[in-house]
Write a structure and sequence with these properties.
heterodimer; A: 240 residues; mainly alpha; 10 helices; B: 244 residues; two-stranded antiparallel ribbon; 77% helix; 2% strand; globular
């Protein structure tokens, strides 16, 4: 009798954690899929590196000029790289029907969109943070500025993944989805770009950069509260 | 006697109402615009600082106001549409967007014309100019999304969601750009009073009302076409088209 009661308790405990477990499953599945198809996500990383490397060729090799434009260039390239990888966020699961199965599950859809955005950040955002210091050196940025640049990208890239999931859900299955996604989402990225690149500029000119980073973090919190829900609603609109 | 407000939430009844109202709004917009422009160009005195060039504000300021108000109105209709699933609300949002984009573009264009004599440059990366530009981009994005989606129901809801996300984002964009750089002159009209001559203010207010009326007229005319297009399979539309 007692053993039965405990097993019921266990089941209840399990239920309380089941949304988290579901979220973890979604994240793990996407990361696993990405790990098995490395070519797919490495394209976005190489795109990032190449776009950034084109700028010195276009504007000349003077270290002073490069230092001035470096933070902005890296940030804009990060925006573009995220937009490049976002159309795939839901598209492949939509094509093979597994997205519909996920939406049919009893767990709320917001966990699917949140999980997929977080997985996108792990796949696209974290490697970006690793590459950025090297690019910072190419742009003659001093050590502290590079640290601030990486920090600003650490706070900022999740915003790009979260906001981007809204655009990816809205444009799911549309013709010209990639370019359309850029048109929709790029204006919404503006605050992240301004605060992110602004933090590095502030560090370069010797004034405090913590205000920029705090604002960027506030924007991240707001995005985290709003974007997954909107993306879930958009996903339902796109699939129904 | 109670008024049946919901009677006109049906596209079929609203089609007739819009047709009756549109000419009134259009004519009053035209008349007020003529009066406003007359005051602006012939009655209002020359500004002691900015000379004659300041007269562009009679178009610039109402256009800038309208481009922002229209976005808010679109956000309102989108929220109503998503909450109550009313088709007409989505149609109103669709009907308003092109007018909003035109006003946003007009405010940028006239702003450039004003900027050249005032600041010595057609374009400066100042907070208001930049946020007006981004607002214009938002309008373009919304219209691009609508045109890419063939299924009407999906397009309505997807557009509404995008408009609402943009509406949350617009104040953030505005303040982020404002902290980023500021050169634009402060607002001339503040709740506590104005820094303008009385007659200039009147000219601008008349022009703003004219812009409002024009927007309403344009939206009503456009929503009639949208109604016809999306209800083309119904009997009443077939009747209208036969009797034309």
């Amino acid at each position: 009798m007692t053993t039965l009661a405990t097993s019921e308790d266990m089941a209840r405990v399990d239920d309380a954690f089941s949304p988290l477990r579901f979220l973890w499953t979604v994240i793990r599945r996407d990361i696993l899929l990405a790990a098995r198809r490395r070519g797919d996500w490495l394209t976005a990383q190489f795109f990032f590196v190449m776009v950034v490397s084109m700028f010195p060729l276009g504007i000349g090799p003077e270290p002073d000029v490069l230092r001035m434009v470096g933070p902005g260039v890296v940030w804009v390239a990060a925006l573009l790289a995220s937009l490049l990888s976002l159309p795939r966020l839901f598209a492949e699961d939509y094509r093979d029907g597994s997205l519909e199965q996920m939406l049919l599950s009893p767990e709320p859809t917001v966990l699917v969109t949140l999980g997929k955005s977080l997985a996108h950040w792990c796949i696209y955002g974290i490697p970006l943070l690793v590459i950025t210091p090297i690019l910072g050196v190419q742009f003659a940025l001093p050590g502290e500025a590079i640290a601030v640049l990486v920090l600003s990208l650490l706070i900022g890239t999740p915003i790009l993944s979260l906001l981007g999931s809204v655009g990816a859900a809205l444009t799911l299955g549309l013709r010209g989805g990639g370019v359309l996604l850029t048109l929709l989402i790029l204006p919404l990225y503006v605050p992240a770009l301004i605060f992110g690149a602004g933090a590095v500029d502030a560090a370069l000119s010797g004034v405090g950069y913590s205000a920029h980073l705090s604002l960027l973090a506030a924007f991240l919190v707001l995005t985290l509260m709003v974007a997954p829900w909107v993306a879930a609603a958009a996903l339902k609109v796109s699939i129904e | 006697m109670s008024i049946s407000w919901f009677k006109y939430s049906s596209p079929a009844t609203f089609y007739g109402l819009a047709g009756t109202l549109a000419p009134w709004f259009a004519w009053s917009a035209g008349i007020l615009a003529v009066i406003g422009l007359y005051i602006g160009f012939f009655v209002a005195p020359t500004d002691f600082q900015q000379g004659e060039a300041y007269r562009v504000i009679f178009i610039h300021v109402p256009a800038a106001w309208m481009s922002m108000f229209i976005y808010l109105v679109m956000a309102f209709w989108s929220a109503v549409g998503l909450a109550w699933n009313t088709r007409l609300s989505f149609m109103m949002a669709r009907a308003l967007a092109p007018t909003g984009a035109i006003f946003a573009f007009l405010s940028l264009w006239t702003g450039a014309l004003w900027g050249k004599p005032m600041w010595g440059a057609w374009w400066v990366w100042d907070a208001r100019l930049t946020s007006a530009l981004i607002l214009f981009f938002l309008y373009v994005g919304i219209m691009a999304l609508w045109s890419a989606i063939d299924d009407r129901r999906r397009g309505d809801k997807a557009g509404a969601l995008l408009i609402l996300v943009g509406a949350i984002n617009v104040p953030i964009i505005y303040f982020s750009v404002k902290w980023w750089n500021t050169l634009h002159q402060g607002a001339s009209i503040t709740p506590s009073g104005t820094s303008m001559d009385q007659i200039m203010l009147w000219g601008m207010l008349i022009m703003a009302i004219a812009a409002w009326l024009y927007t309403i007229a344009a939206a009503l005319i456009r929503v009639r076409s949208i109604i016809l297009e999306s209800e083309r399979q119904t009997e009443w539309v077939a009747n209208i088209l036969e009797h034309k």
